[in-house]
Write a structure and sequence with these properties.
The structure is a single chain. This protein is of the alpha+beta class. 43% of the residues lie in helices and 20% in strands. The strands form two sheets. Strands 1-2-3-4 form a four-stranded antiparallel β-sheet, with helices on one face. It has a four-stranded mixed β-sheet with strand order 7-6-5-8, sandwiched between helices.
Length: 173
Amino acid sequence: MPFLMLFMAMLALMLMRVHLPVGGARYSGRPLTTVSLSFSERLHMQRVNTYAIGLVLLLTTVTGTLPSGLAIPIVLIATGILFIPVRCTITTEGVGINNVVFRPWNELSGFATERRRIRLIGREGTRPFMLPLLPGKQQDVLPVLRRYLKPAESPTGGTSRVFAVAKSIGRQN
């Protein structure tokens, strides 16, 4: 029974990354662009949750503590959550993902492109916000982001990948 509650909590956390059944973030501003995430991008966004569920599922199955017949429904529910549509919406006031989170532009200072995501760099005291977009969709979003945020520069010049965080940490010291 404790493992069933653990799996329910893990699946609930996985669901809350893509949809909040009650309440949720309110968007403000006029929508500029909306990008739907592909299955691969949704899987990348949920990779830590997927790994955690898979590892606990493996351990409880191998040790025999999970009642037989529960592994398949857990996998099906996790897969079903991965099929929930996820959209990144950029408005004149900020950027958000589904009804889960909305970050206004005044909380962000810049952005850096990475291989599988765009890192929106938060101002001092705020966390970065990740948009899990592959390079093809990054090209659709970057012109809109450039209107509101500055691209972070790498030490060698040009647009950064991960150097934006190191540079901002260096300025604080």
